[in-house]
Amino acid sequence: MITLDGVIQAPGGPEEDLSGNFEYGGWTKPFGDETYGKVVKEELDFSDYLLGRKTFDIWADYWPHHGEFWPGINAGNKYIFSNSLSDTDPRVIGWNNTKIIRDIEEVKKIKASAGAPIQVWGSSELVPLLLNHDLVDELRLKIHPLLLGNGKKLFTNGVIPAAFSLQEHTVTSTGVIIASFKREGEVATGSY
Length: 192
Description:
This protein has helices spanning 34-43, 53-59, 71-75, 90-94, 104-112, 126-132; strands at 2-3, 48-52, 78-81, 98-101, 118-119, 138-144, 164-171, 177-183.
């Protein structure tokens, strides 16, 4: 869930992430429709999950107790990329299949394993790190027709140049462009 200017902060609700005095929490709410709901439901299929610590902080108090909407989030493996969380944190212990990982080498090992597909939701600091290490195979974006200006952004300086190809796309009745992009190698250049 992203705005035209790249903001991904707090799409789900006013109190989700107020850091940086963010005022627009819940900005996706006016854009829900049948198409949007269908796409989100498909993305909730069983998977493993790689989350940054801040996304984990937001999710850990909610999803373990609300799995009826998204059973896969509790059944799947959850890898939390963090140097500050402890394996003895009650939220880590209390949420099924949750493990702390500390560095990019551990991410590479998980990605190379024969497990379920790995999804990353939110995680505005983790996604650029993964992109910079060329560890992203696919981007699934729901591009909302909004400019929010300030807020946590998905694409930041330091992301390596990379080419992607459009795999699927649709536009909802509320103007959200839902697109899936697959990693396709290096950036090609030329002149006109």
